[in-house]
Amino acid sequence: MAAPCPEDPSLERHFKGHRDAVTCVDFSLNTKLLASGSMDSCLMVWHMKPQSRAYRFTGHKDAVTCVNFSPSGHLLASGSRDKTVRIWVPNVKGESTVFRAHTATVRSVHFCSDGQSLVTASDDKTVKVWSTHRQKFLFSLSQHINWVRCAKFSPDGRLIVSASDDKTVKLWDKNSRECVHSYCEHGGFVTYVDFHPSGTCIAAAGMDNTVKVWDVRTHRLLQHYQLHSAAVNALSFHPSGNYLITASSDSTLKILDLMEGRLLYTLHGHQGPATTVAFSRTGEYFASGGSDEQVMVWKSNFDVDYGEVLKVQKPPATLASSAGNLTVSILEQRLTLTEDKLKQCLENQQLIMQRTTP
Q1: pTM to 2 decimals?
Q2: Tens digits of per-residue pLDDT, 79-131?
Q3: CA-to-CA distance for 182 and 196, rounded, in angstroms?
Q4: What are the beta bridge partners of residue 159?
Q5: 255-294, pLDDT tens digit by residue?
Q6: Domain ranges in the chain?
C-alpha cells in the first residue's frame, strides 16, 4: 500500500460570469490571474485574490476556443471560431492585436517557453507558427488530413506536437519543419496533447475515452489509461511531472499518478461535460471548466511539499526536469513488463474498475 496522501484535492474558488459553456482555462505565471474562454465569445480574466473584480474581454466575433498566458504573464493569447488569434494585454483596458492566417476555427494557442513564438492549430488542418513580437505569421505545418485540435511546443521549444481528428498525433521539428513521427494508435479523434515537463514524453487524450503516454525519443507507448466513460477533452501535467489530470465528457476530472501508473482521484464538480483543465505553474492549484458555464479552482494538496520546494528553488525548470527524468525512467521500467504481465495488469485494472463502479 502506498502511503496516504496528505489531503484530498479541495474546491477553493468558484467563478461565475460566462453565459455559455467554458472551453479553456490557463493560469498566469504567478498564479494571480486565471483566464477562461467560452462559447459566449468572451474571455474572462479572474483575480485569484478574493473580492477583486474580473475583467471581461470582448473582441472575438464567435466562440473563444483556447487561451494561453505568455511565460512572463504580460500577454494572453486566444483563438476563436471567428478564425482569428488575438494577443491581449491582460489589464483593465484589455487591448488586443488580431492575427489572421487561418481559414477556419482556431482550436489551440500556445506560447513557446521563451515567449518569442506562438503555435496555433485549426480546423483548416494546419498548425501555424507566429512571431509574437513582430506579430507575423512565419510558417505552416500541413500534413494532417482533418481538423487539428491542439498543438504545443516542447519545453525547450525545439519540437511541436499536434493532435487531430485524423486520429493521429504528430511530432514536428520546429527548425526543419519536418514531421518526425506520427502516433497512430488512437481509436478516435485526438482531442488534446501536451508535453511532459521533462520534454521526454507526451500525453494525448481521445474521443475513444483513453489517455496515452508516449516516449518521444523511442516513440514507444509507455502508458495507456482507459478510466473515463466518455471522451477525454483535456489534460494537464503537474509541474513535478509525477501527476496528470484529465477532464472528460463523463463530467469528472481524474488525477493519475504517473509513477505508479494508477488512478489517484476522481473529482465530481461539474454538471455535464468537463471541457478543460489546467494546473497552475507551481502545481499548487488546478482549474477546470465545463459546459455548465462554471470555472472552478481546486487546491491540489496531493503534492504539498512541491510548492514549497519551488518557492526556494529558482528556476523551477531544473526541479521539473530532474523529477521528470525520474518519471520517465520508471515509465520505461514499467514498459519492460512481458505481454502476459501487461495483460494481467489490464485485467486487474478492469476488476478494480468493476469494484469501484456502483
Answers
A1: 0.83
A2: 999 999 999 998 888 889 999 999 999 999 999 999 999 999 999 999 999 99
A3: 18
A4: 173
A5: 999 999 999 999 999 999 999 999 999 999 999 999 999 9
A6: 10-307, 325-357
Q: What are phi and psi of 305, to 5 degrees?
A: -65, -25
Task: Compute the C-alpha angle 226/305/236, nearest 5°.
Answer: 30
Give the residue ranges of DSSP H helices in the chain. Answer: 304-312, 316-335, 339-356
- Cβ contact 338:216 at 8 Å: no
CATH code of the domain made up of 10-307:
2.130.10.10
Of the candidates 233, 239, 222, which has an alpha carbon nearest to the alpha carbon of residue 193? 233
User: What is the grid cell recorded at 52?
Assistant: 477583486
Query: Using the 8-state DSSP alphabet, how is residue 74 labeled?
Result: S
Rounded distance between C-alpha atoms, residue 276 and residue 233, angstroms: 7
Cβ neighbours, 10 Å, residue 160 = 26
| All cell numbers assigned to 190 | 485526438
Q: What confidence category does residue 351 fall into, taking pLDDT thresholds of 50, 70 and 90?
A: low
DSSP 2: P
Nearest Cα residue to 290 out of 62, 18, 72, 4: 18
pLDDT at 3 over 50: no
**Could you give phi then psi for residue 35, rounded to 5 degrees?**
-105, 145
The amino acid at 66: C
The H-or-E segment that residue 164 falls in is strand 159-164
CA–CA separation, 332 and 324 (whole Å): 12
CA distance 123 to 142: 11
